[in-house]
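stage 2 :: seqdesign
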């Protein structure tokens, strides 16, 4: 499991006074990038191996309002396929789970965006984050 802490910003709030759905998706994406490339060394590469997001499925469970303490995004790799990866995340604090996200990454080659097979080194790195997230909380 990868754990990413995120501080809420006043700018993340929508007109209803809670963190908007688009911002919650941003939190999930930031956590996934931190898991995949913690030093941000390959984040904006123009060519070579990369991942494209094929799908996000987000369940919004509770309103997340502003607070000083950070929230946490727990992220695990749920499945590693031939050329795709399923990533499961949940946004939480010590009291509640606010949202869950299931993301499908597809391995590709830039700049073409053509699909590629996952390499052994990638599989090994991703396997370190394999697991399940408790669905009951």
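stage 2 :: out
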């Amino acid at each position: 499991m990868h754990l990413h802490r995120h501080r809420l910003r006043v700018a993340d709030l929508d007109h209803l006074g809670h963190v908007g759905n688009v911002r919650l998706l941003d939190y999930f994406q930031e956590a996934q990038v931190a898991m995949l490339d913690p030093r941000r060394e390959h984040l904006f590469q123009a060519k070579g191996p990369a991942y494209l997001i094929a799908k996000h499925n987000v369940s919004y469970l509770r309103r997340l309002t502003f607070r000083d303490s950070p929230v946490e995004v727990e992220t695990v790799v749920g499945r590693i396929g031939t050329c795709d990866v399923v990533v499961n995340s949940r946004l939480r604090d010590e009291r509640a789970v606010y949202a869950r996200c299931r993301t499908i990454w597809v391995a590709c080659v830039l700049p073409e965006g053509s699909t590629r097979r996952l390499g052994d080194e990638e599989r090994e790195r991703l396997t370190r984050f394999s697991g399940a997230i408790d669905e009951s909380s």
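stage 3 :: structure notes
- The mean pLDDT is 90.
- The beta strands are 2-6, 48-60, 71-80, 84-92, 97-110, 114-115.
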